[in-house]
Amino acid sequence: MNLPGFVNSVGAWFFLALIPLIILYFLKLRRPKMEVPSLALWQSVVNDQRVNSPFQKFRRNLLLLLQIILLCLLVLALMQPFLQAGAEVAEYMPLLIDCSASMSAVDEVNGRSRLDVVKDQVREQIEHISGDQKIALFAFSSTGRRLSEFTNDRRTLLKALESIQPTHLPGKLDDVLRMAAAYTRTFPIETVTILTDGNLPDQVDFELPFSLDVKRVDAGGANVGITEMSARRSGAEEWEVFVRVAASSIDLRGVELQLWENGAKTAGEAIEVSSEEAERLVFPVSSGAAQLIEARLVPTGFDSMTVDNSVWLTLPAARPLKVWTSPELGSWRHAARVLPNLDMEDTTEDLPKGSDYDLIISDTADLGTAQAPVQVFVGVIPTDLQDLIQVKEDVAYVVDWNRTAPLLRHVQLADVQIGEQPALAAGAGAKDLEERGYEVLIDGNAGPLLLQRREGLRVSFWFTFHTDKSTLPYRVGFPIIAANAVESAMKQASLSEVMAAPTGVLPAITVDAQRDYMIRTPDGESLAVKSTESGTLEGIAAAKVGRYDVMDGSNVVTSIGTGLLSGTESSLKATEELRFTELTVAAEQTDQLDSDRPLWWFLALGAFGVLLFEWWYFQRARGAMA
Amino acid sequence: MTNATPSQLTTLFDNATLSQIERMRLKPLRRLTNRSRGEHLSGKGGSSTDFADYRDYAAGDDLRYVDWNIFARLRRPYIKQFQHEEEMHVVLLVDASTSMLFEDKLLRAKQLAAAFGIMGLLNVERVSAYAMHSQPDRPWMLPPGAGRTRIRNLLSFLEQVEGGGSIPIEKAIETMLRFHRGRGVAILISDFLTFGDLSRPMNLLFSSGLEVWGLQVLAESEINPNVSGDLRFVDSETQDTLDITNASELLNVYQDQRLGLQSALDAMCRSRQGRFLSVNSGATLQSVLFDQLCRQGWILR
User: CA of A214: how far to CAs of A193, A531, A547, in Å?
Assistant: First the structure.
């Protein structure tokens, strides 16, 4: 415990009031006169050693003593003493409050959420703020948000505090720490305090310019939630919907997982899950048209968090993959044609007739107006790389390839012979290619043999050699490459597999280009957005779990849903320490924030008590005299 | 005070009390007497009718005191000796200072002095009285005298005493001793509330052949003061003041001091072959005279 400090030390001058108090006490002390036969006995009484003992003197001057105590207490209260929580309590105190989804977990006993507990602690801190201290409030989930500037205005701080509500987003520290770090350039911040339930990624990519004080509250009660949801096409109009349910407690907890389509319950299954045994369930769904399905969890017992009990998934309409290949690329056409659910355009033209395809395989860079989410160029050097790569008349062979790239999965290229040699220009390297947005998937002996480029949702693969001038079409890996290209296109068009969208930002939605739309959120609010030139709605914030309708006037163009889908949040696990780039910070569990404890009201209360006692004593003395 | 009526001898007490007093006599601890005859038996051989002892006849002895019956049997003359009755001097010293004016202390002192004086006079003792006050127009001394005829003078003297002034008792004793002659009993009737030292006057009384009887008369308000709170006490004699805070808290100490003073006075008198008694002025004269003083052996009935 540190020694108490004083906010208003100047108030000590009021102790000088003791001097007039004592003088006035003796000047104004009026004693009733009483005539006695002789003072002899009373004089000997006054001279008695017992009467003159310090304790007796104290009793004789009790009223004066009470008045001195009263004045001292009042002056001390005026000086606003406080018990210092610690030397590190500084003038500027940024408080970062976790409002991620796990903070909405409630306690099984008292029904209070973690955020409520943290808000109580912060509220107490604000109530006890001293005159020269300033607090700034920040809230964070996946991103950070400043709620108030540095201020000691309790009203402002309390208003900002009350505005914090638990979000439906996972917790992440990076953004809010950067935001706090930006303030260190303006204010002398020594310590930043984080108030959290500890459900955070334990690895933070951030260099701390200040000391961090992580205060952790108890985790909420037991929780069961949906942590994953996806669907895979199993037929022309058949889907298999996968749902993963996890729990936070080691005890088995019973829940019913329900599947809802178009507002009607179509399937349900009762299961038991624990933290050690998550359940994965598969529901068959028949759907030819696009539809939004919801997986809903109905706990049979206590569930501390409801936000992870519902996840939405959009199933696209069933259709064949639309593919176009150059007429010269017979090997590719032949390899792809055998794959199911393909609509391959038979053409002898060098350019595609249509404009929208799912997959284009071409031996020229010029596709006219046609475009596809997945494009494969064969024997083509990208225009912007022609100064870096030249094709030489020499033999090339594969040195290494990226085996995890979607196009090259399960492909063996070791013995492929290539009759031409793409070579990097002198002084050029892979770094130059990366700077221009290309990633090398296959390295040849002189230069890159396969490049990949991502532009938004669109991905293009560039074979720098013509496959017909190599032994690749005769290898087992070639049909696999073709199948991988089709699979990538299927995924890109969401025809083979779809994943439920987590909260945060909605996935890009394909709509008409350059048009205004309204997004109706699960809260019922409307958000005006405009589609891009490429015909997508991008970067739409989705902070809440639920259904988002894209409206064109009063018509619903399409719907998309979200879910929390965070195993970390649903598990409610608290990390013991946060590992930063250079150091590790322990998350200290506490029920109370370190804050200066003002003592003035104790002193004021004591002064009031002394006043009452003095009044009683005075009245008693008067009564006795009467 | 009893109202004086033609049928009453004195205003100090009624005739019934007086008749009771007349049948009582003082009982001194020692036989300090004067040479002149009196009714107190001297320690030396005397001529009273009470036989004391025999001694051999010596030439010059009065033949009337020879025991002839002894002479007839033993053929030797023996002289019979008798108790010698000598006169005892009773000195009454009444404190009439202002402090005695509280709650009939002075009246009780005068009544007791009158009773002691009457007892002395009726037993053929010499009685003198002194009043300690500062009233110049009032008598302060009754010269020594004996016999029934002095009773009237004594009562008249005491009735005229009115209190006032601030003469310390020790100073009054010294003044009295300048006028006093003879051995006997000095009865000091006072509240003994003085700042001075009483040892010296006590020694002077003792060395003058006087047996010191101290009779303290205190008022009820002095024995059990009912005071509380912060007070300013004013001395009735000197007008000096003393500030007392929370007086009720000091009553225990006050009682200790009062009893301590009584013990000191008692020890002072006893060490000089005397006696001491403290009485309440609120108590009746009868209870003091016929009960307390009798039980304490001061007087004989």
Answer: 6, 42, 35
Contact A621 B249 (CB under 8 A): no
Closest to B175 in 3D by CA, of B141, B198, B211, B143: B141
Domain A321-492: assigned CATH number? 3.40.50.880
0.80 surpassed by pTM = no
Q: Which residues contact A439 (CB under 8 A, 6 or more apart)?
A: A433, A451, A452, A453
| Most B-contacting residue of A38, A47, A49, A66 (CB-CB within 10 A), to test interface | A38
> A621 and B230: CB-CB below 8 Å?
yes
- With beta carbons under 8 A apart, name residues in chain A contacting B169: none
Between CA A104 and CA A95 the distance in angstroms is 19
Q: Are A42 and B233 an interchain contact pair (Cβ–Cβ within 8 Å)?
A: yes
Per-residue pLDDT of A385-397, as tens digits, reads 999 999 999 999 9
Q: Is the pLDDT reported for residue A122 higher than 50?
A: yes
Residue A280 to residues A257, A311, A494, A571, Cα–Cα distance (Å): 11, 14, 22, 16
CB A156: neighbour CB atoms within 10 A?
16
Distance CA A137, CA A158 (A): 10
**CB within 8 Å: A41 and B257:** yes
- Residue B1: pLDDT band (50, 70, 90) is very low
Q: How many CB pairs under 8 A join A and B?
A: 99
Q: Give the distance from residue A71's alpha carbon to the nearest chain B alpha carbon, in angstroms.
A: 22
A273-318 confidence digits (pLDDT tens): 988 888 899 999 988 788 889 999 998 888 999 999 999 998 888 8
Distances (CA, A) of B221 to A86, A94, B104, B280: 65, 75, 12, 10
Which residue from B102, B193, B256 is facing A40, i.e. has the nearest CB? B193
Query: Domains of chain B, with CATH numbers?
Result: 15-31+88-300 (3.40.50.410), 37-86 (no CATH)
Q: Minimal Cα–Cα distance from B144 to chain A, Å? A: 31
Average pLDDT over every residue of A8-17:
87
Structurally, what CATH architecture does the domain formed by A92-221+574-595 represent?
A: 3-Layer(aba) Sandwich (3.40)
Where residue A521 falls among pLDDT bands split at 50, 70, 90? very high
The position carrying tokens 């000195």 is B91
The pairing of beta strand A509-510 with beta strand A536-537:
antiparallel
Q: How far apart are CA A422 and CA A531, in angstroms?
A: 40
**Given this structure, which CATH class describes domain A226-308?**
mainly beta
